[in-house]
Amino acid sequence: MLSFTPIQTTFAARVEGANLRSPLNDAQAADIESAMDRYGVLVFPGQHIDDEQQMDFGVRFGPIETTRATVDAQKHRLKHSAMNDISNLDEKGEILAADDRRRFFSLGNRLWHSDSSFKATPSKYSLLHARSIPPDGGETEFADMRAAWDALPATMQAQLRELVCDHSLIYSRAQLGFGEFTDAEKRQFAPVPQRLVRRHAGSGRLSIFLSAHIGEIHGMPKPEALMLIRDLMEHATQPRFVYSHRWEVGDLVMWDNRCTMHRGRAYDDKRYKRDMRRVTLSDVAPTLEQVV
């Protein structure tokens, strides 16, 4: 039997009684989906699983995204092309060179973001599993975007309700001074529109759909738009809305990109290996086609 115990906040919980090496039964899958709707972040400790078991677990909750958004995508060390390599390792399993463009690109994971908000149909859940971790640093922080919405003044909520933003990996990496994209990557990462406010289907609550990938707001001058996004970011990432996860090998953390943001924290990536693997599930439709 699964149990769910809140961790520090009202939007993260620790799951006990799960063995992800075996297929879930229907009741377990339903319990997990219900808990995801309630919390938004679930921690499954002590799950020593392989890539196939991680993917088998993920697919119970929706279709796995088949395209990975990265540079030099052909240099992939993992068996499954649909599995995201959230590590500092090259295709041979060695630490990336300090000047490798993949390393510079991956620094964008340390910005607050929502996975795949830059895709026409963004993601539903992400499932990140720790295979090896550094001795210090490398935590992942999560922000509760439903609570952040609830805490906004009514006048601000009214201002935001109908806004549409353009998202792109090019926008987020520009914040770091990274602009070395090939023509093919520029086409792949072309901006897509997303609602700034969306209704979370499972809970019925409204949420701010924020991400570092935002670079434009339709109908608003760019400086004004980016200032508004910065103000919202500062509001939504106050400590009262944030859970910080300190990883242990075997942890699997599952989160709902429709109602949370997250970011990775710094660690000595030139010295220690950090092997993290992510399965990402696609949502049902573009946000502009979903009910608000």
Task: Summarize the structure in words.
With 292 residues, the chain is an alpha+beta fold. The chain has one domain: Clavaminate synthase-like (Double-stranded beta-helix). Helices cover 23% and strands 24% of the residues. It has eight helices and 15 strands. The strands form four sheets. A seven-stranded mixed beta sheet has the order 1-2-3-13-5-15-4, with helices on one face. A three-stranded antiparallel beta sheet has the order 12-6-14. A three-stranded antiparallel beta sheet has the order 8-7-11. It is globular. It starts with a strand and ends in a 10-residue tail after the last strand. The mean pLDDT is 96.
Give the helices and strands, then pairings.
Blueprint (H helix, E strand, L loop, with lengths): L2 E4 L5 E5 L9 H13 L2 E4 L6 H8 L25 E2 L15 H6 L16 E10 L7 E5 H6 L3 H7 L3 E4 L1 H6 L8 H6 L3 E4 L1 E3 L6 E3 L5 E4 L4 H15 L5 E4 L6 E5 L3 E5 L10 E8 L10
Parallel strand pairs: 2-3
Antiparallel strand pairs: 1-2, 3-13, 4-15, 5-13, 5-15, 6-12, 6-14, 7-8, 7-11, 9-10
Task: Considering the chains and any ligands shown, give keywords for the structure.
15 strands, globular, 23% helix, Double-stranded beta-helix, 3-stranded antiparallel beta sheet, alpha+beta, 292 residues
Number of helices: 8
Strand order in the largest sheet: 1-2-3-13-5-15-4
Shape: globular
Overall number of structural domains: 1
CA-based gyration radius: 18 Å
Could you tell me the CATH topology label.
Double-stranded beta-helix
* CATH class group: Alpha Beta
- What is the annotated CATH architecture? 4-Layer Sandwich
Poorly predicted runs:
none
Order of helices and strands: EEHEHEHEEHHEHHEEEEHEEEE
The CA-CA distance between the termini, in Å, is 35 Å
Mean pLDDT: 96
The total count of strands amounts to 15
Kindly report the oligomeric state of this protein: single chain
Q: What structural category arises from helix and sheet content?
A: alpha+beta
SS strand fraction: 15-25%
Instruction: Give the biggest beta sheet.
Output: 7 strands, mixed
